[in-house]
Design brief:
two-stranded antiparallel ribbon; binds zinc ion; 2 domains; mainly alpha
């Protein structure tokens, strides 16, 4: 029993602090510039101390260099994304760049690997939409989805970038990473995108390829989004931001909700532009109403989150935040009425529809 406890404690220690950089302190003469030193790297030209004349060994490390070396190697970075994802992300964005393989590169490589695997197993993602020329905005969007199925790195980057602002807002007061910036938020989502694609790859490799020869990619995506993504985000954000389980759970759920809204708002903006270009003013106005309505519902949610985040009532501040919430709700009522009048689905119907589509499997 104590053996397991000991193991676990060492695992926790590794999770929080896996790196142990040590200086070689061996006196050497730099092969590049001839400077004498006893550091790991030459202080004059920056060449690594271990580089001697070229041998078969350096051929080996030269080839492995493609995948990064030491703590920065790709396999080790992916390994860390399984066992200490949140800590790794925090290390990286707070300046420990040597802790990880470059994240954007990693995203591209994992996406390529997944695309190859999809090809190998003949995974099928689209419901056969191809061949139909885009005649209106909806079919154009279908085309975009299809394109994203073929360009997984971009799809992950676009999809997860919808999380940047919601997560920034939800975790602003986080105990371990207060006031993270939007560029840091970008890297957070890149790492999570890598993690998502990696788990998808493992899922397909383990279950879809062998178990029942199912090659339904939409099914694999559904499992990822409904089951694995929430668990992933829980672990990531708990380690990264340092809230307890409940504080993390509700923020993850709200971030998923808000991410859907960001997607809807982007979709509406696309619709406005598309129909302006086509000079169909009425259709454009409908998308404008939709977009504004979704934005206002986001505003309501953000006001509620703000009240919970700052816990202003504890300091006896009841007025301002609650007034802003009431104002947001009042505006939402108006935009909902406008949507109903124009005959477009309002944001509340729309979100219930999307939830149904995602979680009830149609
Ligand atoms: Zn040197």
């Amino acid at each position: 029993m104590s053996y397991i406890k000991d193991k676990y404690q060492r695992f926790r220690q590794w999770q929080q602090q896996p790196f142990d950089y040590q200086d070689g302190h061996e006196h050497h003469r730099c092969c590049n510039c001839g400077n004498n030193s006893d550091n790991n790297y030459c202080p004059r030209c920056g060449q690594k101390a271990i580089y001697g004349p070229i041998t078969w060994h350096s051929v080996g490390t030269g080839i492995l260099d493609v995948w990064g070396v030491g703590t920065r190697s790709l396999p080790y970075s992916l390994w860390q994304l399984i066992w200490r994802p949140g800590y790794l992300i925090r290390d990286y964005i707070s300046g420990k760049r040597q802790a990880s393989f470059p994240p954007v590169k990693m995203l591209v490589i994992v996406a390529i690997a997944l695309a190859l695997l999809n090809n190998l197993f003949g995974m099928n993602y689209s419901d056969n939409l191809s061949g139909v020329a885009a005649t209106d905005y909806e079919s154009l969007i279908d085309g975009v989805y299809e394109w994203m199925g073929d360009h997984l790195a971009w799809a992950a980057l676009i999809g997860f970038s919808f999380f940047i602002v919601p997560v920034w807002f939800l975790f602003r007061q986080a105990p371990r990473l207060p006031r993270h910036t939007l560029p840091q938020g970008f890297y957070i989502q890149v790492f999570i995108g890598v993690q998502f694609l990696m788990f998808m790859l493992l899922l397909i490799l383990l279950f879809f390829s062998t178990l029942n020869k199912s090659n339904n990619g939409s099914e694999a995506t559904a499992i990822m989004v409904v089951i694995i993504l929430p668990i992933m985000l829980m672990c990531d954000y708990k380690q990264l931001f340092g809230y307890g389980w409940w504080g993390t759970i509700w923020r993850v759920l709200v971030s998923l909700l808000l991410m859907l809204f960001v997607g809807k708002v982007v979709n509406s903006i696309g619709g406005i532009i598309y129909y302006l270009y086509e000079q169909q003013w009425a259709a454009s106005a409908k998308y404008l109403a939709k977009g504004v309505d979704r934005l206002v519902l986001m505003w309501v949610i953000l006001e509620i989150v703000n009240i919970i985040n700052t816990k202003s009532w504890r300091n006896g501040i009841w007025g301002k935040p609650f007034m802003r919430l009431l104002l947001a709700i009042a505006v939402l009522l108006i935009t909902t009425l406008v949507c109903n009048r124009l005959g477009v689905d309002n944001s509340i119907d729309s979100i219930i529809g999307s939830m149904g589509a995602i979680y009830m499997n149609d």
